[in-house]
What does this fold into?
Amino acid sequence: MPLPLPLRNALTELILDALHAEGARRGLEAVAAVCADPNALEGAGALPAAFPRGIFERRDGGWRLKSGFKTFEAEFADRAERARRLLHLRPFDAEDPPLEVAMVAAALLFHAHLYFEVHELLEPYWLRAEGGDREGLQGLIQVAVGFQHLANGNVSGARALLHEGCARVLERTLQGVSLDPFGRALERCLDRVLALGDDAPRLFDWNDVPRFPVRAV
It folds into this structure.
């Protein structure tokens, strides 16, 4: 289920900031905590400064998503907890790291199925890139958004972006890493999505998503 823009954007900003900022990481941990137990922070003192108060309210003695977002509580909580587990003990990156470092963070987000966050993380690098690097980054971004569409139930959007992204990464290298094996695996993955038809969002095996192409640093 796609999150409403206020929830999606607030959580994405917090997750990306938590890659490099201790305060944001504390804010993310607080969000995950109150999603699991609205009273989790009672008696803990002031909320972290990065806690996104704009999407929460005090209700029934605890912190809860605003009542208009009730339908999305489970999805929001799941994404917040996945991000918290991913970043809990991870060393902080620089605020604007080189692409090689950002690609490692993108791989972690991708493997945690935080696909929209991959898009947002890599887009600034794509805007600054040229030539083959720009094409490769665009392909990776399209693939991430394609899988996000699939998770959201948008089958036609998933097919289109996975197809376009796959074409851009085949036979291409980025930061000394061959994207071609990723592209070949994506071709097989896309075949499975196509074979499932309109049932793809329900029946797709997310274990079939290929590993993000990255060189360990």
About this structure: The CA atoms of residues 96 and 102 lie 8 Å apart. The longest strand covers residues 56-59.
